[in-house]
């Protein structure tokens, strides 16, 4: 890939050197079964990408393709501008990986394990001590791994992934089975790595956690890229409703809401705590205007559609299309794989 | 990556350093779980028992002649060494596949053959040390206690026994890798290897000897040699029977037929090496074809 400018957005020029991972029309088949179909996307340096999809959607296959563990049936994947299949040892050091549910070697201590991995990566084993301290594992560094909790193992896993200061980090379900504190710790580390310019791809089902960290989400379904983009652009594309919670309403205010046609049509649930309105994007401005200007309400909260809502929307589309067989899984025009380039254009326009 | 992070020397990711790192890890694992000492103890007890208590079978309490000792050791080692090698290697790849570490290692800047050779070197050292200590100590005791005139034959006999034991173990380690690479469950790998052990160590030999006795006219020398080549345990027996000709009950039995392969010792060692190289290539080929 040459270094010419590929995208002009409102305030940023993106060149090929900004792209950490680029997939072009990637297909992966196992005999008749197509694990991935025509998947294209870009990941920029310093971005956190959430790779989401149902079980068997092709997330792990995609990660393995990026890692060069398996070869695509057709299409190409570039990592830091190098074709994955032709990367040498030094270039492969730019990739860090934390597999799902890795159990490591139970008879080794944490220090021995990191030193072993450091040697295999050509890193001075002394770095193992630094990382163990950084990840809060110094006190347990001489403990056998079979005494480690799930959270400690995941911290150790992330430590091994960043041994060589990778430019691209691939995390497969990093927070599954972790308590909220352990998850928060991992995401704090992810934020630090992101700030250092590391591109991070997180395959996860824990959408609430990743939503605040990610720049973009890649949504996979049945081996296809259903959508790609920032949460804002996905919200815009799906046109999912937002929710408004009206708290501490007086009786008069409650009556006013219920009697006002534009508001009463949106009432989703009514309880003693207040009212929950569900509003389509087209109505949002009018409803907010009414609440703020006409009713002078201030005690309410607006909750836009979450990544979970967006994900459910696309999964329902898949279910619908399966029910409507033999129609294609998704309308190609509706959910065509969006490239980073077009995505950025759309975001800059909005 | 900062300069200080990288190991000194330009070739910090050389094949040799990667292989030696993996080999050292495998070796330490087997030190830690006491497998090395257990195998050594088994071989040592076996060789001491055969040497110093073997004669009890014939109703006397004299020390066996060195040739008789070696003959007995070969007969018993052919059962134990392959089993030990199989138990050492059966989960080398399938175990790492199950735990997810194989997937992780393959994302590292190392080639699959590095991993294969590293494990082979580590496991090979474990079996080599067990054989050297297990048989060597007994050999040394026999040299110290034996007559001066038989010392040379003891040294020679035990040297061949140790060398061929190591080679036989290496072959079964590689057979273990091969099966370990081909299956998806540890239990299946162990089951398949035990069947393989049963066939190669017990059944194959019985069938071969039966054929030799029954159809000696049809089974000519060339064909017989090829059949011997196809089983490394027969090669082990043949090598040691040629290296230590003994006028014993065992040696007089139909096993002497195996010793009449017509191969010299150097050629038999070359055949062992051929087995090892061929199996290494097979394992590498299988590993290379696999999508993890």
From TrEMBL, chain A:
Positions of the ABC transporter domain: 21-247
Keywords noted in UniProt: ATP-binding, Nucleotide-binding, Transport
Cited SUPFAM superfamilies: P-loop containing nucleoside triphosphate hydrolases (SSF52540)
SMART domains in the cross-refs: AAA (SM00382)
Top-level taxon: Bacteria
A Pfam family: ABC_tran
PROSITE patterns referenced in this protein's UniProt entry, alphabetically: ABC_TRANSPORTER_1, ABC_TRANSPORTER_2
Protein name as catalogued: ABC copper transporter ATPase NosF
Gene: nosF
Automatic annotation (TrEMBL), chain B:
Name of one Pfam family that matches: ABC2_membrane_2
Transmembrane segments: 36-57, 69-90, 127-146, 158-179, 191-216, 263-287
Keyword Transmembrane helix annotated: yes
Keywords: Membrane, Transmembrane, Transmembrane helix
Tree of life domain: Bacteria
Protein name, per record: ABC copper transporter permease NosY
Species: Shewanella glacialipiscicola
Gene behind the chain: nosY
């Amino acid at each position: 890939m040459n270094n010419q400018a590929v995208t002009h957005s409102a305030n940023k020029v993106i060149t090929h050197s900004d792209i950490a991972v680029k997939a072009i029309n990637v297909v992966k088949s196992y005999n008749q079964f197509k694990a991935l179909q025509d998947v294209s996307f870009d990941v920029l340096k310093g971005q956190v990408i959430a790779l989401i999809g149902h079980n068997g959607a092709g997330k792990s296959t995609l990660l393995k393709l990026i890692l060069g563990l398996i070869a695509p049936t057709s299409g190409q994947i570039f990592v830091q501008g190098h074709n994955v299949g032709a990367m040498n040892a030094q270039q492969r050091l730019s990739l860090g990986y934390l597999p799902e549910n890795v159990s490591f070697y139970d008879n080794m201590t944490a220090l021995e394990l990191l030193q072993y991995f450091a040697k295999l990566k050509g890193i001075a084993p002394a770095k193992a001590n630094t990382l163990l301290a950084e990840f809060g594992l110094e006190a347990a560094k001489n403990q056998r791994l079979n005494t480690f909790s799930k959270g400690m193992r995941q911290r150790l896993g992330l430590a091994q992934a960043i041994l060589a200061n990778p430019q691209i980090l691939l995390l497969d379900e990093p927070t599954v089975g972790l308590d909220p504190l352990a998850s928060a710790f991992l995401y704090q580390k992810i934020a630090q790595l992101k700030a250092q310019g590391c591109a991070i791809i997180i395959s996860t089902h824990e959408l609430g956690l990743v939503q605040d960290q990610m720049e973009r989400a890649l949504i996979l379904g049945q081996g296809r890229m259903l959508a790609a983009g920032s949460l804002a652009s996905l919200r815009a594309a799906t046109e999912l409703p937002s929710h408004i919670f009206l708290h501490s309403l007086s009786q008069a205010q409650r009556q006013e809401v219920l009697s006002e046609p534009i508001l009463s049509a949106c009432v989703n649930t009514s309880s003693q705590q207040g009212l929950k309105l569900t509003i389509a994007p087209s109505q949002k401005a009018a409803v907010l205007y009414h609440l703020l200007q006409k009713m002078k309400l201030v005690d309410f909260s607006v909750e836009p559609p979450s990544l979970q809502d967006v994900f459910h929307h696309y999964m329902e589309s898949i279910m619908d299309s399966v029910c409507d067989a033999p129609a294609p899984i998704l309308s190609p025009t509706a959910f065509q794989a969006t490239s980073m380039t077009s995505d950025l254009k759309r975001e800059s326009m909005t | 990556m900062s300069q200080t992070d990288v190991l000194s020397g330009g070739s910090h990711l050389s094949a040799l350093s990667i292989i030696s790192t993996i080999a050292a890890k495998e070796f330490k694992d087997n030190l830690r779980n006491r497998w090395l000492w257990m195998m050594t103890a088994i071989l040592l007890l076996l060789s001491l028992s055969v040497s110093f208590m073997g004669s009890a079978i014939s109703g006397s309490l004299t020390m066996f002649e060195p040739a008789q000792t070696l003959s007995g050791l070969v007969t018993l080692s052919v059962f134990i060494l392959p089993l030990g090698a199989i138990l050492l290697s059966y989960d080398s790849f399938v175990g790492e596949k199950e735990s997810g570490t194989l997937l992780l290692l393959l994302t590292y800047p190392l080639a699959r053959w590095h991993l294969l050779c590293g494990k082979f070197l580590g496991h090979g050292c474990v079996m080599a040390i067990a054989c050297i200590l297990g048989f060597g100590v007994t050999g040394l005791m026999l040299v110290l206690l034996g007559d001066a005139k038989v010392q040379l034959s003891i040294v020679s006999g035990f040297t061949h026994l140790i060398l061929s034991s190591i080679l036989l173990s290496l072959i079964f380690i590689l057979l273990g890798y091969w099966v370990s690479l081909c299956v998806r469950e540890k239990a299946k790998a162990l089951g398949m290897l035990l069947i393989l052990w049963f066939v190669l160590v017990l059944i194959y030999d019985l069938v071969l000897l039966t054929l030799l006795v029954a159809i000696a006219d049809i089974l000519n020398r060339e064909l017989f040699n090829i059949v011997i080549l196809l089983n490394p345990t027969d090669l082990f027996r043949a090598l040691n029977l040629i290296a230590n000709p003994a006028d014993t009950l065992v040696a007089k039995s139909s096993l002497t037929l195996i010793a009449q392969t017509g191969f010299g010792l150097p050629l038999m060692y070359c055949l062992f090496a051929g087995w090892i190289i061929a199996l290494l290539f097979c394992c590498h080929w299988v590993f290379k074809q696999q999508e993890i």
